[in-house]
Amino acid sequence: MKIPKAGRRVHVEWIDIVGLVNDVLSKAVPAPCWSEGLLVRVEKDFIVLASSMYGDSPDDPVGDYTVIVIGCIKRIRVL
């Protein structure tokens, strides 16, 4: 799978890791998920999507981020 370069708006379909406490075994399964946002960081093992960003700090921007492990991504497409 080819990951787009940072700076593109993307739709990502992925499998989210689930943790359960004091629950039944049958519910212990990964959760299918999708997220959309601006791809702001691409690393070897993970990507970061921004759904909102605040202020004007170019060195270390403040925002709302979703970090997705590459191995959990089922599909990614540029919007």
What class, by secondary structure content?
A: mainly beta
What is the H/E string?
A: EEEEE
Low-confidence stretches: none
Helix content class? under 10%
SS field, number of helical segments: 0
Rounded mean pLDDT score: 96
End-to-end Cα distance? 16 Å
Q: What characteristic shape results from the CA principal axes?
A: globular
Q: Which percent band covers the strand fraction?
A: over 45%
What's the total count of β strands?
5
What can be said about the biggest beta sheet?
A: 5 strands, antiparallel
Strand line-up in the sheet with most strands: 4-3-2-1-5
Q: Kindly provide the radius of gyration, computed on alpha-carbon positions and rounded to a whole number of angstroms.
A: 15 Å
Describe this structure in words.
The protein is built from no helices and 5 strands. It has strands at 9-16, 31-42, 46-54, 62-69, 73-78. A hairpin with a 7-residue loop joins strand 3 (46-54) and strand 4 (62-69). 9% of the residues are buried. The mean pLDDT is 96.
Mind sketching the topology for me?
Layout lengths: L8 E8 L14 E12 L3 E9 L7 E8 L3 E6 L1
Antiparallel strand pairs: 1-2, 1-5, 2-3, 3-4
Quick structural overview:
Helix content is 0%, strand content 54%. The protein is mainly β and 79 residues long.
List the keywords.
79 residues, mainly beta, five-stranded antiparallel beta sheet, 5 strands
